[in-house]
Amino acid sequence: ATTRAFSSTWRPPARASARIAAPSIACPQELARLAAIDPIPAMPRPKAQTAALMASVDDVETQFYEALQRGDIERLMAVWSDDDEVVCVHPGGPRVVGHGAIRATFAAIFANGPIPVRPEKLKRVESAGCAVHNLLERVDVTTAEGSQTAWVIATNVYFKSAQGWRLVAHHASPGTSREVSEIVEAPSTLH
What we know:
By secondary structure, this protein is of the alpha+beta class. The chain has helices at residues 28-37, 47-53, 57-70, 73-78, 99-110, and strands spanning 87-89, 95-97, 117-126, 130-143, 146-161, 164-172.
């Protein structure tokens, strides 16, 4: 098995078969171009339906990652806050601000198929109206070279509104082919 580092411009080789959906991580320049165009306005969402589905931060995060796994742009956009300043940073890409720009970048990514991503090793800081989740995203792809895994460090920020919890920021680092190690400080309080 050959180990290859994943860079911000990494693209999996062409699909070996139509049944294998390998995601493409669009290059930063293309994401910047799509974000600047902002051609797709934010779609209104049925608040009562999405609020019921997202009563907790964990509900929102589950729906976000399921939408990525299914390549479902409508479900993915339903988790975002109505705030105009929502922000997303794709691995190695620019800061993407606003619903239309975020939708355009995810639509470009989903054009290559769903993203086989699994959230792992969640660390959380939560209060009554805000939650910050830092986690590892494990992305498994099948290429002509065989099965490969990319690890991405992601931070998701959630605010609680009248509609329930909503995502206001998603920031994902460039991937690596090795699982990311952690430096953890020992607790300062003894019980």
